[in-house]
């Protein structure tokens, strides 16, 4: 089975997981609990499409990234 690893950090992670799989799993589970998730009181627990997120977030960065994505989709004939 072949894998593509893009960064040096990925290489390190794969090697650490190979040596200590249980520890790696526990650390990843702990980090999953630490990283903040959705706000329980916000009422936004469902997944939304990217095009809907662009309208909801009203961010220049999100708009720029969405524009690049639309242009790439148009260039490679992937528009619906």
Descriptive key words:
single chain, 80 residues, mainly alpha, extended
Briefly say what this structure is.
With about 80 residues, the chain is an all-alpha fold. It is built from 4 helices and no strands. It has helices spanning about 10-20, 20-35, 50-55, 60-75.
Describe the protein in words.
By secondary structure, this protein is an all-alpha fold. It is 62% helix and 0% strand. It has helices at 8-19, 21-34, 50-57, 60-75. Helix 1 (8-19) crosses helix 2 (21-34). The longest helix is centred in the last third of the chain and has 16 residues, at 60-75. The mean pLDDT is 80.
SSE topology:
Elements lengths: L7 H12 L1 H14 L15 H8 L2 H16 L5
Helix pairs in contact: 1-2
How many DSSP-defined strands? 0
- The proportion of strand residues reads under 5%
SSE series: HHHH
Biggest sheet details: none
Q: Low-confidence parts, pLDDT < 50 over ≥5 residues?
A: none
Number of helices: 4
Straight-line N-to-C gap: 33 Å
The helix content is 55-70%
Structural class call reads mainly alpha
Task: Compute the CA-based radius of gyration.
Answer: 19 Å
Mean pLDDT: 80
- The best one-word shape is extended
């Amino acid at each position: 089975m072949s894998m593509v690893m893009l960064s040096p950090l990925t290489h390190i992670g794969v090697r650490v997981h190979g040596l200590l799989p249980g520890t790696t799993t526990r650390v990843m589970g702990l980090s999953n609990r630490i990283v903040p998730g959705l706000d329980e009181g916000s009422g936004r627990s469902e997944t939304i499409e990217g095009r809907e997120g662009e309208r909801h977030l009203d961010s220049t960065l999100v708009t720029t990234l969405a524009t690049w994505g639309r242009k790439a989709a148009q260039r490679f004939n992937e528009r619906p």
